[in-house]
Write a structure and sequence with these properties.
It is a single chain. The chain is of the alpha+beta class. It has one domain. It is built from 4 helices and 11 strands, in the order αβββαββαβββββαβ. Strands 1-2-10-9-8-7-6-3-5-4-11 form an 11-stranded antiparallel β-sheet.
């Protein structure tokens, strides 16, 4: 009887610890209608892009510089961005020294928070996993959230996710896989095709490097 009680106590403790671990893995932001499971993103495993539709390169560079000064101008460093032009699209390849937080926030930053004739009419982010193609993902600003602080997207493997931008400044990001998110991989690709962009050309474009001074807060941890 004594041993049976001990076994029951151990089982209960294991169950409690399992529930606690699961609860810690889940994330829920009051500011978004979504919740789900955090997924670590190691940016060193990805080649990352931002696709910008109908916005001049001079305006895009200006926006990057403005973004780089948001945390302050005391601790600045050099960051390289590789630019390519294809029709009405400007494509930026993000180097590996830029954090998850910076990549995702910068993607939304290009849309602008005030009226400007140079603001793009569409921006998409892409992170291509170099070893596991099904871990490649696509994202864009969630049009259903008025505050403009949440991105939604989908992996090639079909996992849908959201990124709450104010909470993204952590080591492996805060990408959260969620069944609450409603988006579709084929719709994203069809939208890009409709705007005359073929994802297959990303690796064959001729890129020109631009060095921009940004706050060191944006560097990978």
């Amino acid at each position: 009887m004594k041993y049976l009680i001990i076994v029951l106590v151990v089982v209960v403790l294991v169950l409690l610890l399992s529930k606690l671990t699961l609860r810690q893995a889940k994330t829920n932001y009051d500011e978004t209608p979504y919740s789900g499971i955090l997924k670590k993103i190691n940016v060193q495993e990805y080649t990352r892009f931002i696709l910008i539709h109908k916005s001049p390169k001079t305006h895009i560079l200006k926006k990057i510089k403005e973004f780089g000064e948001l945390p302050g101008e005391d601790d600045m460093g050099s960051f390289n961005f590789n630019f390519a032009i294809n029709g009405d699209w400007t494509i930026i390849e993000i180097e590996n020294n830029l954090s998850f937080h910076a990549h995702h926030n910068l993607t939304t930053w290009f849309l602008g928070y005030e009226e400007n004739v140079n603001n793009p009419d569409g921006v998409f982010g892409i992170a291509q996993n170099r070893e596991e193609p099904l871990e490649t993902y696509y994202f864009y600003l969630d049009p259903s959230i008025e505050s403009g602080d949440t991105e939604i997207g989908i992996f090639e493997n079909g996992e849908r996710f959201f990124v709450y931008l104010p909470g993204a400044n952590v080591k492996y990001g805060n990408l959260t896989v969620s069944d609450d998110v409603k988006t579709d991989l084929e719709v994203i690709k069809a939208s890009l095709n409709h705007l005359d962009f073929d994802l297959k050309i990303l690796d064959s474009l001729e890129y020109q490097q631009e060095t921009v001074i940004l706050n060191e807060d944006y560097r990978v941890w």
